[in-house]
Amino acid sequence: MEVCWEKCVDKPGSRLNSRTETCLANCVNRFIDTTLSVTSRFAQLMQKGGH
């Protein structure tokens, strides 16, 4: 999340503009997708190892 913040937020203020909001949303979504992909792959490896 820190990387997203540094990448997307130029100058902190009381409100986020639409570009900043979109950037943060995309960044967070990529993080979630990556986490789900890694978790799924780990589950597959655990199933193979369990047989």
What is the compact description of this entry?
By secondary structure, this protein is an all-alpha fold. It is 78% helix and 0% strand. It is built from 2 helices and no strands.
Structural overview:
The structure is a single chain. The protein is mainly α and 51 residues long. It is 78% helix and 0% strand. It contains 2 helices and no strands. The protein has helices at residues 2-8, 18-50. The protein is rod-shaped and about 50 Å long. The termini are far apart.
What fraction, in percent, of the residue positions are helical?
Answer: over 70%
Quote the average pLDDT.
88
* Parts with pLDDT < 50 across at least 5 consecutive residues: none
Overall outline: rod-shaped
Q: Strand-residue fraction? A: under 5%
By oligomeric state, this entry counts as: single chain
Could you spell the SSE succession in H and E letters?
HH
By secondary-structure content and strand pairing, the structural class works out as: mainly alpha
Give the tally of β-strands: 0
Instruction: Compute the separation of the termini in Å.
Output: 37 Å
The description of the largest β-sheet is: none
Number of helices: 2
